[in-house]
Amino acid sequence: MEQQDYRFKIAHREALIGVGLALFNFVWWFGFAYGLGSQDVSDYQYVFGFPAWFFYSAIVGVVIMAVLVFIVVKFFFVDVPFDEEVEDAS
Amino acid sequence: MNIQATITLFSSVIAIFFIGFIFSRKKTNDASFIHDYYLGGRSLGGFVLAMTMTATYGSASSFIGGPGVAYNEGLGWVLLAVTQVATGYFTLMILGKKFAIVTKRYKAVTMVDFLKERYQSKAVVLLAAFSIVIFLFSAMAAQWIGGARLIESLTGLSYHGALFIFVVTVLLYVTFGGFRAVTLTDSIQGSIMFIGTLVLLIAVVISGGGVTSIMNDLREINPNLITPYGSEGQLTASYVSSYWILVGVGVVALPQIAVRAMSYKSTKSFHRALIIGTIVVGFIMLNMHLIGVFARPILPGIEVGDTVMPEIAAHVLPPWLAGLILAAPLAAIMSTVDSLLLLVSSTIVKDVYINYINPDASRQFLKKMSMTITALLGIVVFSMAVQPPELIIWLNLFAIGGMESAFMWPIIMGLYWNKGNKYGALASMIAGIISYMILDTAGFEPLGMHHVVTSIVIAFIFYVTFSLFFQKRIRSA
């Protein structure tokens, strides 16, 4: 395959960032859910009415991921052109 | 049962489809028909791309099935559902720019096109086409049933009457509209769902007397409902974590998602889709499933899980508003069905018929054939949905898992590993599908994880081993 395309280097880096984000997301989600959630129900702390494990893992987790994706896309993702076919044809 | 709700429900659905139809009409005249009917001419903007991904993926399983399970299992199921936030960014980032560039170079219109060009093998194409048809049939039946259940519980019609209405609407729309019409209506539905779930969630919280009081009620019904472990403690950490594969990262391999990841206009729209998609998916999944849990103390004793959503909406909201909000999931289900129908028909028409039977078919003939097959398929699925299983979510998850086992590695490794070849792809698909079927029938879940994890691991081993083993043969050929 034609590996020399400079756009593939960018694409590969961004795919790796995606893997990194998913790993971070998983650790955050798992850590809070089972770290705090495995206590006895009578020992649960509550945040805004939700059990703390749920609040941090699910609610804060979703918000954090949204913010991270925003930051990553804004600052690390690069625009590349898609119109090589047009150039080839002319 | 409720005339006001019924009227708003149907008029909203009609309005949504009407808009999609008008807009799609304008543009489908020029360009090549196949390209446009199945791919919308690769012109999706960021917002539309994000919404169509959300609506396609977050369909009956999330909107009807998911909250039903959450109702029975409590917060543990919401925890499981939020793993889907990963689909919002992961699928797009992994397939990402490379998939768009490569498919453009290949002039691929469907996922099977991509496999065909990448592996240059008739066997790979036919096997892929075959698995798409088989598994998507299960997925479609799930959507059909979900749509019919929703109409049934809101209008009080019989299940079969509701199913009939649903099917006729879908068929009319998809037969004439094609991909662009579908993606356009997806954006409208996505927006309604986003706002609708929020309104419904607020109404449910108010009706339950606030989050604290709902949590107290839940604890009194069964303390397990507010733990991560499910009502009987059966949702173990490893089982729930395995859903990261099934409904999170594995979604990369679903043909209906992959086709969208090649249909965007520019990297700008791709970037916007990433941001919007993550927010929208996370928000809707969290809200939808929370509604299911919160409904438990407000409306105890609902027996068919799939009817939790429509019943709670009808209970806490004024009828016209319930109708309006439920129009969104109904429309989402329709759009999922539409996309699935289009996919199956494109697989048959484009991937099999044009590739191997009659490459020179006339445009007029192809057009007729696409529409006929799309309509025929709809009728077949209808007959499957006449006898529905208990909870649609399991049917849907079966189909998703099957496709993930089959396509995960041929797509991802095909994209990122140059040594991957047709022997690896074939072995991986066969091993993935067979192991998935066997584990599913046997009900065997190794290490307490959903069996899709095992199948994907097996498929990976086969892909790598066979690719390396037959490497020489490819070179010398």
UniProtKB/TrEMBL annotation, chain A:
<feature type="transmembrane region" description="Helical">
    <location>
        <begin position="15"/>
        <end position="34"/>
    </location>
</feature>
<dbReference type="Pfam" id="PF06196">
    <property type="entry name" value="DUF997"/>
</dbReference>
<keyword id="KW-0472">Membrane</keyword>
<feature type="transmembrane region" description="Helical">
    <location>
        <begin position="54"/>
        <end position="77"/>
    </location>
</feature>
<dbReference type="InterPro" id="IPR010398">
    <property type="entry name" value="DUF997"/>
</dbReference>
<keyword id="KW-1133">Transmembrane helix</keyword>
<protein>
    <submittedName>
        <fullName>Uncharacterized membrane protein YhdT</fullName>
    </submittedName>
</protein>
<keyword id="KW-0812">Transmembrane</keyword>
UniProtKB/TrEMBL annotation, chain B:
<feature type="transmembrane region" description="Helical">
    <location>
        <begin position="191"/>
        <end position="215"/>
    </location>
</feature>
<feature type="transmembrane region" description="Helical">
    <location>
        <begin position="44"/>
        <end position="64"/>
    </location>
</feature>
<dbReference type="GO" id="GO:0005886">
    <property type="term" value="C:plasma membrane"/>
</dbReference>
<keyword id="KW-1133">Transmembrane helix</keyword>
<feature type="transmembrane region" description="Helical">
    <location>
        <begin position="319"/>
        <end position="344"/>
    </location>
</feature>
<dbReference type="GO" id="GO:0015233">
    <property type="term" value="F:pantothenate transmembrane transporter activity"/>
</dbReference>
<feature type="transmembrane region" description="Helical">
    <location>
        <begin position="391"/>
        <end position="416"/>
    </location>
</feature>
<feature type="transmembrane region" description="Helical">
    <location>
        <begin position="423"/>
        <end position="439"/>
    </location>
</feature>
<protein>
    <submittedName>
        <fullName>Sodium/pantothenate symporter</fullName>
    </submittedName>
</protein>
<dbReference type="InterPro" id="IPR018212">
    <property type="entry name" value="Na/solute_symporter_CS"/>
</dbReference>
<dbReference type="InterPro" id="IPR050277">
    <property type="entry name" value="Sodium:Solute_Symporter"/>
</dbReference>
<feature type="transmembrane region" description="Helical">
    <location>
        <begin position="6"/>
        <end position="23"/>
    </location>
</feature>
<dbReference type="Pfam" id="PF00474">
    <property type="entry name" value="SSF"/>
</dbReference>
<keyword id="KW-0813">Transport</keyword>
<feature type="transmembrane region" description="Helical">
    <location>
        <begin position="451"/>
        <end position="470"/>
    </location>
</feature>
<feature type="transmembrane region" description="Helical">
    <location>
        <begin position="274"/>
        <end position="299"/>
    </location>
</feature>
<feature type="transmembrane region" description="Helical">
    <location>
        <begin position="157"/>
        <end position="179"/>
    </location>
</feature>
<comment type="similarity">
    <text>Belongs to the sodium:solute symporter (SSF) (TC 2.A.21) family.</text>
</comment>
<feature type="transmembrane region" description="Helical">
    <location>
        <begin position="76"/>
        <end position="95"/>
    </location>
</feature>
<feature type="transmembrane region" description="Helical">
    <location>
        <begin position="365"/>
        <end position="385"/>
    </location>
</feature>
<dbReference type="GO" id="GO:0036376">
    <property type="term" value="P:sodium ion export across plasma membrane"/>
</dbReference>
<feature type="transmembrane region" description="Helical">
    <location>
        <begin position="243"/>
        <end position="262"/>
    </location>
</feature>
